[in-house]
Amino acid sequence: WWYHRFLRCFVPGIFLDLTFSPSGRLGFSSLLVLQDKWEQIVGQDSTLEIFQHITLMTLDTIMKCAFSHEGSVQLDRKYKSYIQAVEDLNDLVFSRVRNIFHQNDIIYRVSSNGCRANSACKLAHDHTDQVIKSRRSQLQDEEELEKLKKKRRLDFLDILLFARMENGKGLSDKDLRAEVDTFMFEGHDTTASGISWIFYALATNPEHQQRCRKEIQSLLGDGASITWNDLDKMPYTTMCIKEALRIYPPVPGVSRELSSPVTFPDGRSLPKGIHVMLSFYGLHHNPNVWQNPEVFDPSRFAPGSSRHSHSFLPFSGGARNCIGKQFAMNELKVAVALTLLRFELLPDPTRVPIPIPRIVLKSKNGIHLHLKKLQ
Ligand code: HEM
């Protein structure tokens, strides 16, 4: 419990501390690498499958912000196998939930899907082990330790490495890896889904895209720099981001084991101990909760508009809601603002994405967009 309370205070700060220069300017090197790559590609062929590229970019961002990683994940081919493992696990977890025989651990372990899941887990664990090992060995270095002491705040991995439990012992390797795994996964696949679907929503709603671009141009000019304060000064863009998160929630649902029975207003009830799935996708598309739910209408999130406190839950609700919400919203805003300054986003009518629920919301056929470089 103490650990989660502690992280909830700490996470909103990691984006601030690790990507801001003392002048308050935001660092966005991962995004620049992506945009430069896009600029080169759209010179040859203007249609792109954006999800894969964005996933590498968000992995790059979380590796830099939370794990002190130096170098670029996007330029180093070795990270592709980690991304592939996460993609396989996304599919495998989903197909396991839908197969009654695979609920049994022994049957699952000997099935072909179980074997695939095992090797994907091993690959993902090797990646996180490598990240921990490399930071541990950096910290053996006096100079690196000095740098660390001067930091206003430690990053996520450093906190875990220095953490002491009540008994004075550090986290075990297994516990450490579990925490790093969670952050590595939650910190990049969700934001990749969020950014990709927001770009698609803006591509299919050009009038809203243009209004956001105008707002960002008047705030940032040519976008050579962006500051922490700017992030609170893009109300229309924020409304569009929220509306895209409503229609395409990056985490389409969560599951819970009931610790006590739940009784509904009509008298039906669910017993303690069963597993229930809660669909945010279903909630966000429910016509009893949202009028014309399929229509992209950012005015639903205009300042002063009213709605039920639990009608919009992209980051879940209650005690176990998303720790990285603030971090994620900042990353989404920076990605949208700087991309709209450099590119016009247009849909590819021959390849309309088909949303599929996995651990994060994916598209069966990828997300293909035309990108037009702006002068
Ligand atoms: C658009 C991006 C994101 C969305 C939509 C999102 C959504 C969610 C949701 C719905 C949950 C609840 C899961 C459950 O109840 O089973 C969750 C939990 C969590 N998220 Fe996020 N998330 C995002 C980005 C991030 C980022 C960037 C980080 C890390 C920096 C992060 C870290 C976490 C962690 C650690 C938890 C577990 C919290 C706990 O169990 O107490 N998330 N997220």
From TrEMBL:
Q: Where are the transmembrane segments?
A: none
Q: Which domain of life is it from?
A: Eukaryota
- GO CC terms in record: endoplasmic reticulum membrane
**Where is this chain primarily localised?**
endoplasmic reticulum
Q: Which UniProt keywords apply?
A: Endoplasmic reticulum, Heme, Iron, Membrane, Metal-binding, Monooxygenase, Oxidoreductase, Signal
InterPro entries listed in its UniProt record: Cyt_P450, Cyt_P450_CS, Cyt_P450_E_grp-I, Cyt_P450_sf, Cytochrome_P450_Monoox
UniProt keyword annotation of Membrane present: yes
**What GO terms are given for molecular function?**
alkane 1-monooxygenase activity; arachidonate monooxygenase activity; heme binding; iron ion binding; oxidoreductase activity, acting on paired donors, with incorporation or reduction of molecular oxygen, reduced flavin or flavoprotein as one donor, and incorporation of one atom of oxygen
What is the annotated localization of this protein?
Answer: Endoplasmic reticulum membrane
Q: Which biological process terms from the Gene Ontology are attached to this UniProt entry?
A: arachidonate metabolic process; icosanoid biosynthetic process; kidney development; lauric acid metabolic process; linoleic acid metabolic process
Q: Which PROSITE patterns match?
A: CYTOCHROME_P450
Name by which UniProt lists this protein = Uncharacterized protein
Q: What is the lineage of its organism?
A: Eukaryota, Metazoa, Chordata, Craniata, Vertebrata
